[in-house]
Amino acid sequence: MYQALYRKWRPRTFDEVVGQEHITEILKSQVLADRPSHAYLFTGTRGTGKTTCAKLLAKAVNCLSPAGGSPCGQCEICRGIESGAILDVTEMDAASNNGVDDVRTIRDEAVYAPVAARRRVYIIDEVHMLSKPAFNALLKIMEEPPEHLIFILATTELYKVPATILSRCQRYSFRRVPAGLIKQRLMQVAAAEDMELTEDAAGLLSRLADGALRDALSLLDQCAGTKIDRERVLSAIGLADNEEIVHMAEALLGGDGDTALEILDALYRGGKDVSAILNQLSALYRDILLGRVAPQNGPSLMSGGFSEEALARLSAGADTGSLLRGLEAVQNAASRLDHSGDRRLTAELCLLELACPEIAAAPAPIPSPPKAAPLPKTVPQPPLPAPEKAPQPEEAMQKIAAKEEKATPPPEPEKLPAGWLVKPEETPAPAEKAEAAASGVTWERVLAALEHELEMPDYMMLCNPENLSGKLEDGGLALYPKNDAVRSMLDAGRLALIRRTAEELTGVNTPVTLAVPQAEGEGRFDRLDTLFGKFPF
């Protein structure tokens, strides 16, 4: 039965792992020193060797005669782990076994000593897919694991792994494999498989793999045939030739939308994928930008799929602003393809936007209001009234004056009968004013001096004219309490304080008397009798 190339050529030792020497050297030294950790976490992009290194480590820690830190592959333990006969090494896919019951099963089995191997190893791939309860169950056994237990976790999304798990693992980050190493490995595999692989095709496959050696081997398996050249790879994968993408970019930068759409139509009819065409165009725009903004280090970052002559020719005919706008437009169109009803139309609109930037910058036309239907000829249309002439400023002022003269005067207020309103307290006579000025004391001055002598509730009660009022009478100060509460307050010693304060203000003996407002009370009763007499009962 045929076996896929990426499975057939899976590394058997740590030395065969491509591009991850910074990890394999550490793992080999731990195996040689017989000091492996109880938990490992391998993270990185797809196809970089995480699961492969996990299996190699599981064999190496149990191998009877490891060679340089790598498993020998010949002992019964290595052969049993490879065939699956030894159950002490278990590999679990967390994408399909992510429940808490699956982890509890591991926890219940982990406490038992291994049967055939020296250590029990659990490899959990895509560990970030575990649920929160499953992570909690896994954390319990990872906190205090038995001496014979080793966990090897692998994930492509490190940020989804809880910090409590990360802190208990030795973390190793796998890098993307460089394109040169992938090309070298492809040529080696092709030679061993009797495949005729050209240098151009191997370079194209290594760039398409995007750092994943497994993807490169899968693409090589897809292109297998009598001879694997550049045209074979483009035809098998559904890519356009880079020269056609260059011609399309030249037409777009020159404003020739007709030629760009014609090239797209030819590629589409030839079975090329629209998404792949836009991705290639995006890579070309990126290479041109790198050559313009980073002339020294830019070539090492380019995709390598386009010739230097083509990049120089395109760079000379475009400015940086147009390249940035074009790259953004291609990226936006590529992201909308999966949600578009017509993928070809989306790509065509993108090309038109690049070839004619004034179309995207022009505002949308404002629709004109619908015209009213004309009346039938048999019905006479009435003439439109002539617009009134706007009045001049002088005429407007005259009209306003005439309106003001014609306006009726406001009605006079109704006169109320005498005695209706309560008369305010009469102001003191000029003689009283002179007497007050001579004595130098008034009730207001006494109240101002009492502000710091009395407590605030008592002071507020005495200040209220509804409770107490004072007048100058016969060379002294007469106080008129309005209720029994104020009278009781004055009798309780406040009156003596008021007399002492008045003497301090004048410097002489100032009489302060307590009077009853008989006349004022009688006047109030008289006004009430007058008011009630106006309403018959």
Report what the structure shows.
It contains 25 helices and 8 strands. Helix 8 packs across helix 10, helix 9 packs across helix 10 (213-222) and helix 22 crosses helix 24. The chain is elongated, with a radius of gyration of 51 Å. The chain has helices at residues 5-8, 21-33, 50-60, 76-83, 100-110, 132-143, 163-166, 179-192, 199-209, 213-222, 230-237, 242-253, 257-269, 274-293, 298-301, 308-316, 320-336, 343-355, 357-361, 393-406, 430-439, 443-450, 456-463, 484-506, 518-533, and strands at residues 39-44, 89-93, 120-125, 149-155, 170-174, 468-473, 476-481, 512-514. Strand 3 (120-125), helix 6 and strand 4 form a beta-alpha-beta unit. The longest helix is centred in the C-terminal third of the chain and has 23 residues, at 484-506. It folds into 3 domains: 5-175, 3-Layer(aba) Sandwich (Rossmann fold); 181-359, Zinc Finger, Delta Prime, domain 3; 430-529, 2-Layer Sandwich (GMP Synthetase, Chain A, domain 3). Mean pLDDT is 79; it is low at 416-438. With 537 residues, it is α/β, with parallel strands linked by helices. The strands form 2 sheets. It has a 5-stranded parallel β-sheet, covered by helices on one side. The chain is 52% helix and 8% strand.
